[in-house]
Amino acid sequence: MSDWLISQEGTQTGLYLSMGFALAAAVLHAIFGALQKGRHDPWLSRAAIDTVIFVLATPVALTLVPWPAPHLWLIFAGAWVIHTVYKILQAMTYTRGAYTVVYPVVRGTGPLFAVLGAGLIFGEHFNGWQWFGVAVLLSGIYGLALYNLRKLTVGRDRLVPALGFAVATGAMVALYTTYDAYGIRATENPFTFLAWFFVLDSLFMPVVGARRLVALPRAELVALLKRGFVGAIVAFASFGGIMLATRLGPVGQAAVLRETSTVFSALIGWLMLGEHTGPRRVALMAMIAAGAVIVQLAA
The pTM is what? Predict the structure, then answer.
């Protein structure tokens, strides 16, 4: 499987696969965000998810993929620091702000910086029409956040710090997208990078949340771990998908396409979390989708 994927790098098939992985990651990332913003505290939700990730990923890393080359351990160390900061900021964002307000800000900040980073690090440059598509997409994302902000009636006193944390989280999304693309491209077998990334990345939050997890009533802990199992499966597919997308295709295009997750997050907020939607939000979501399509067609 890995040999076949590697052989598709730089081909038209590889580009289509990259687009497919990025779009799937968009849907799954919206689900992943909703899982952390649901019934339980975001810190505990992430701790439960990462606990299951560690349990599932460790046997794979130890037995089913080639051992990492020596130079990869320094790359893994950098990824661990970046993702740990991201998780802390994300939990602080979701703790303070309504999901449909803060999530679009997080996702809107990420693609702009990721496109700029891809240009600086990988020499990938958008043409004028692609930048127009980015502008349309970002207008839809931030427009959605502003619309949701106008309708917000609960938690407005915490809105300013929530939005500040959301912007910072978005910057970390751009950083980890670019850095992880560098890491997976520096690995001969992409699944070696993925397996060990998940093992190492899952260490921090369970340690931080261990005392609170143990203190939960048994029934609540079981329910949380069940939710964590679902979140872990979604994380494997979502984060693994976007990493493979950046291995097979342009980083900037994958980053932009993934931000259609904002559309799916709005649908999830409406269907699963009981958050209101309407024709104006639908129009803004259409702008997000249109921007992503422009970027892809203008490439």
Answer: 0.79
